[in-house]
Automatic annotation (TrEMBL), chain A:
Alphabetized UniProt keyword annotations: Cell membrane, Membrane, Transmembrane, Transmembrane helix, Transport
Native source species: Pseudarthrobacter polychromogenes
Protein name: Sugar ABC transporter permease
Record localization: Cell membrane
A Pfam family: BPD_transp_1
Species lineage: Bacteria, Bacillati, Actinomycetota, Actinomycetes, Micrococcales
Membrane topology term: Multi-pass membrane protein
Family that this chain belongs to: Belongs to the binding-protein-dependent transport system permease family.
Membrane-traversing stretches: 21-40, 87-106, 118-137, 149-170, 191-214, 265-284
Domain ABC transmembrane type-1 residues, every copy: 83-279
InterPro entries cross-referenced by the UniProt entry: MetI-like, MetI-like_sf
Chief location of this protein within or outside the cell: membrane
From TrEMBL, chain B:
Protein name: Sugar ABC transporter permease
Family, as annotated: Belongs to the binding-protein-dependent transport system permease family.
Species classification: Bacteria, Bacillati, Actinomycetota, Actinomycetes, Micrococcales
Species this chain originates from: Pseudarthrobacter polychromogenes
Matching PROSITE patterns: ABC_TM1
PANTHER family, per database record: BLL4140 PROTEIN
């Protein structure tokens, strides 16, 4: 082992350092295990039979493999209806959010736009102060939006956090590009659609993901404003199961399988709602990281 | 006005083609801005309308805290009643219980959930294998992408009578506890699940800051004889200090809003004594019992405290640390 001044990095690793590295490794492995455990446990519960569940014997692996409850939920038309509502709401809400966020971010990223600081102030102030639950509820009700898709997709259409990330992305674009396009006779619309947006695919993709995941996961707007079960997103389907509004009985359990259904109807529903996220997660999580990095570099 | 007219024409920035020159179009005037940038202004119209309707109108709607409100009537209420609803909640013991629970959960969240991501980020930063680091990160971010409904379902499952926590309690102590119903266990249940949920993703901004630490600072510290621990203390921590402070201010700002949706999903009347916070209390008062004005008064109180907290945290940190949000 060379011990020259330049190669200080390669200096002999001290005993304390090695102990620390071992401890660090073990700690992080424990974190990984503890993070994954609840998911594994729910999956195990969902495939186990009632005897083992009720005796508190299920932890990492299914005990007494049973798919009775899966069959029941997968045959439930309400479940599929609510699932398709979730997809519809996610698509519509994300589209609206993207149009509003992109256009606003593009305009306020223009440093010489008159009134820019007022527009930014209007948006940022809402991060720290909001009307609160009751005035919002009263407003949405009086707008006649109850029991419509609009109550779910409009109230949170712009996330100021996402707006600021996009704004700083647009601000960091080379000005020459847009200036050249303007000289070529493109209007500001033309510059946005033909020059800026094609160069912003990465940030647009990140924002779509941010909004889509938030909408896919959201439940509270729907819980507040929707009364018609045919309009519920799947998160409300699950919420009613957790809150005991839907029981094994009302979900269509029969005399012979009621016990089994009651034992794991919640874990089965959790697994069925979590699957889409788990499937796309490994592929999209790096975009989230990029998005947060972009946002954190600002100013 | 007269003075401005005497500015020689060369000093005026050339107007874009199509812009008509007249007195209203002086540089910096709205007339010129609109002529030149009207397309940009059309882009802000819809978003501004959104903020006006869905953000600022509800803020104004808070006046119902001082007015009598009739469901189906005007969103700004019917007639002034002064401080009636404010006195009502000030004399309401349930409100003060919720207030106390909010403070306690808020403080516990700051104590436990705020430092964990920093420690986690520092430990990740010590890993030499980038592959393993990526793997740990990928796993640790996962809970962040779950709906709060799913999280709540998993909490209730894991803490249920037959769940894992009771399996462990049974093995170790030979007893089981009804965690989800027992008021004494709500706080540990809430805080531990909150750490589980936020530790990984919360580290992401620190990790971003850590990648920007100048490598030569470590070299210099090593040459000065600093060991690994001293390097962390004197180089790494100061480097991420602005991030720590910014996040601390933001956390203090959301102090009053403690996990509203999650609590609403996992609490029940048996543990209200520790689980009921201001936001859940006003939810029940307002939307389950339809006392809109009363609940709006509580809500306004909550938002004003929230705003005050973030403004003062920001001012203090500007003074003491030179870091601030604005």
């Amino acid at each position: 082992m060379k011990e020259t001044g330049v190669l200080l990095k390669d200096m002999k690793v001290s005993r304390g350092m090695r102990v620390f590295r071992m401890f660090n490794l073990v700690f992080l492995l424990v974190v990984v295990f503890l993070t994954l455990y609840p998911f594994l446990n729910i999956i195990a519960q969902s495939f186990s039979s009632e005897g083992f569940i009720n005796a508190g014997q299920v932890n990492l692996f299914p005990m007494g493999f049973n798919t009775e409850t899966y069959k029941l939920i997968l045959a439930d038309s309400t479940f599929w209806n609510n699932y398709s509502n979730t997809i519809l709401y996610t698509v519509v809400a994300t589209a609206i959010s993207m149009v509003l966020t992109t256009s606003f971010a593009y305009a306020i990223a223009k440093k010489d736009l008159k009134g820019r600081s007022v527009f930014i102030g209007i948006a940022v102030f809402t991060m720290f102060f909001n009307g609160g639950l009751i005035p919002n509820y009263v407003l949405i009700s009086s707008l006649g939006m109850r029991d419509t898709l609009w109550a779910v997709v409009l109230p949170n259409a712009i996330s100021v956090f996402n707006l600021l990330i996009m704004k700083s992305f647009f601000e960091n674009m080379p000005r020459e590009l847009e200036e050249a396009a303007a000289i070529d006779g493109l209007t500001q619309y033309g510059v946005l659609f033909k020059v800026v947006l094609p160069l912003s695919k990465a940030i647009v993709a990140t924002m779509v993901l941010f909004y889509a995941v938030a909408n896919w996961n959201s439940w509270f707007q729907a819980f507040l404003y929707l009364d018609n079960p045919d309009l519920f997103p799947v998160t409300i389907y699950l919420r009613n199961m957790i809150a005991g509004v839907t029981t094994a009985d009302s979900a269509g359990g029969t005399a012979e399988n009621l016990g089994q259904i009651a034992a794991n109807i919640q874990s089965v529903t959790i697994v069925l709602t979590v699957i889409p996220i788990l499937c796309v997660y490994p592929f999209v999580q790096k975009y989230f990281f990029t998005g947060v990095m972009l946002g954190s570099v600002k100013e | 006005m007269a003075l401005r007219l005497e500015v020689p024409p060369e000093a005026v920035t050339p107007d874009p083609p199509g812009a008509t020159r007249n007195r209203r179009n002086k540089p910096g005037s709205w007339g010129l801005a609109l002529t030149r940038d009207w397309r940009l202004y059309t882009l802000v119209l819809l978003p501004l309308a959104y903020f006006a309707v869905f953000r600022y109108l509800p803020m104004a709607g808070n006046v119902i805290a001082f007015r009598q409100f009739q469901p189906g009537g005007s969103i700004f209420g019917e007639k002034w009643v002064g401080l009636k609803y404010v006195t009502l909640f000030i004399n309401d013991p349930s409100f003060w219980q919720a207030f106390q629970n909010t403070i306690i959960l808020g403080v516990l969240t700051l104590l436990f959930c705020f430092p964990m991501p920093i420690i986690f980020a520092l430990m990740l930063n010590e890993l030499r294998s980038q592959k393993f680091k990526k793997f740990v990160q990928t796993v640790a971010y996962l809970p962040h992408f779950m709906s709060v409904v799913i999280i709540a379902g998993m909490i209730l499952q894991n803490f249920s009578m037959t769940g894992t926590v009771n399996q462990i309690a049974n093995t170790l102590f030979g007893t089981t506890v009804n965690f989800t119903q027992d008021a004494g266990w709500f706080r540990p249940m809430y805080i531990s699940s909150e750490v589980w949920q936020t530790m990984g993703w919360g580290a992401i901004l620190y990790l971003a800051a850590l990648t920007r630490v100048d490598e030569s600072l470590y070299e210099a510290a090593r040459i000065d004889g600093a060991n690994r621990w001293q390097q962390t203390w004197h180089v790494t921590l100061p480097a991420i200090r602005p991030t720590i402070i910014t996040l601390l201010i933001l956390n203090i700002g959301t102090f009053m809003a403690v996990g509203f949706e999650k609590i609403l999903l996992i609490y029940n009347p048996l543990n209200y004594a520790t689980s009921d916070v201001i936001s859940t209390y006003l939810y029940r008062v307002g939307l389950e019992s339809s006392n809109f004005s009363y609940a709006a008064a509580i809500g306004m109180f909550e938002s004003v405290i929230g705003l005050t907290l973030i403004l003062s945290a920001n001012a203090i940190s500007k003074r003491l640390a030179g870091t601030s949000l604005w």
